[in-house]
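Slide 14.
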Amino acid sequence: SGVVAVSDSLGFYLESAVEVRSGKVPGSCSQPRYPPELLEAGVEGRVMVQFVIGTDGRVEPWSLEVVSSAWSAFNESAQVAIRTCRFTPGRINGVPVRVRVQMPVNYIRGR
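Slide 15: predicted structure.
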């Protein structure tokens, strides 16, 4: 079927390689804490975080990494917020599999 593991040793798949993609469970993520110094300065931005979603729908903490960031001061709170998220696991042939995904965390004043 052409499905290729990203790493045989780690046993996870790219999001594009699964038949049913992982989805965020609505309301499961906590709001990221806006760093006070950036809020006061009027700084907005985005952090792109990459991580593996386990077959139980939870973020595997070891896999969490910042791929890109507007301001490094946003990084820690973005990672903390992502750890709280729950997902429906990706599936191949109806079986839940571990999937590596990327997700943005946006910091917009007034939201």
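Speaker note: The helical segments are 36-40, 75-84.
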